[in-house]
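User: Structure please.
Assistant: Input sequence and predicted structure:
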Amino acid sequence: MAVTEPYPAVLERLTHVSGRAPERCAYGDEPDQFAELWLPDGDGPHPVVVLVHGGYWRERYRLDVMNALAADLRSAGLAVWNLEYRRVGGRGGWPATFADVADGLDALVDHAGPARLAMDRVAIVGHSAGGHLALWLAARGGLPAGAPGAGPRLVPALAVALAGVADLHEGARLGLSGGAVAALLGGGPEEVGERYALASPTARTPLGVPQLLVHGDRDDSVPLDLSRRHHAAAVAAGDECELVELPGVDHFALIDPASAAWGLVRAHLPPSVGEGRVGARLDRSGAASGDHLSRTPTPTLPPRGGGSSSARSADGTPVGWERVGAGRPLVLLHGAMTDRTCWAPLAAQLSGELDLLLVDRRGRGLSPAGGRYDLAAAVEDLRAVCATLDAPPAILGWSFGAVVALEAVLGGLPCVHLVLYEPPLPVATARLPEGFRAEFVRLVEAGEIETAARLFLTRVMRLAPAVVEVMRGFPLWPSVLAAVPAARWEMEILDACTYDAARVRACRTLATVLAGTESPAHLVEASARVAGDLPGARLVRLPGQHHFAHLSDPAGFAAAVRAALAPRGEGGDDAP
């Protein structure tokens, strides 16, 4: 056996995870013909994510580079089939590598059991060369009889290529990674053209399976143009295919569960892999549930909308948002521990009457990490979004998003109506418990993301541990974990935040403050104080609701927003 070279540090740290060891499952007699099954807790059948590692198909790189993703997905309630295969430099190449990944995928059927794995909800996620293999596995149904991989036993519901080498002809032409494509196939297109025709996903479009391509524009290993070329070919051939280009994201951030880039990918997967269209990111939401919170059905957004957009903030950092519906504009700002997808249930309620701009705040989803993290930057981001509109919008801010919205309006941002939902302002006591921030930062830097999330929810939001446990089972949880690294900086902002009642009392913007009757006392206290200081503001209590009313009771929350935005002559006081 060849001595394996050490990984670069950026990959080495992704191999080390804690928790229950996966089950090793052989699908052949060769040493590299196996997969690792990571089963989540709880009863099945569980949706499945098949992981295919990269490394330009070379023997040096192994399935353990996907360990961190496997652990992350398992924590969200998904089963993971982390696939190993023979590679170039060992006994791989054409056709062995292709035969192995095909056999390894099909072997999943034998391990499903009667109620363990949901075989109708299988997604394949591959990175780099593994992204090529993920797309190729999705294309197997169109392979001619006798070709390696033909006659699949399992067809995935979704194929995801993260910085994938999708176009082998172009990869060979560019000589990527010292001729890795030619080494895989045993020559160039002019020498073994029939192999390229069978092996290149771009050449095999339409694949017949929905595809998601995610690629950073700072990738110096696999050119972004390969994903663009495949996307164009797939769409032209009639495939359902989405391309997400991530500004400022490099090659390995896509397999780092602590990155915002991975959070975006995860938002496409749970809870029901393969249901709905590829781009329906906003119907992946849920609610924390305790005695006063209930599991709500996943909403389906109306088909209208303006898609995603972005603008440059004052420091040059891109800020992105998704636009849904039609009517008067309403900008929505989420809290610290989530992203724009938390608004999905509310968007389903309001998109028929309002033009909703669901903003990803800095370091999440459509808004990459970058630049500085402070309250002024968050305000500048909001200004950049509002500057794209023809007229001042209404603004709805939840939790930390409410702090940003209030600060922006106090700083002169034009707004027709300000709706604040439980802003965590320090109106009486210190915002963060003693020692919390140092411990939170330590956990984030150590990669203990889920522990950091639990710490925030129990000590800062003061949720009962039982409620947090229920939250872990909901589709909201992936966005909570993905937001943790960015939330680190927002904890520092909140810790340094002061409440200037005189500035608030000088505000002349119409305002409504919402608060749940079951919310933590410090949030109710802050909401009441802000409502009392804002001239003419209404304080609306949401009966039986906690800090997540837009998730647990979207219809009731939507009614409160409608009432807030109605002209004051319709059942309210005159404007100040």
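Residues 386 and 455 are 34 Å apart (CA to CA).
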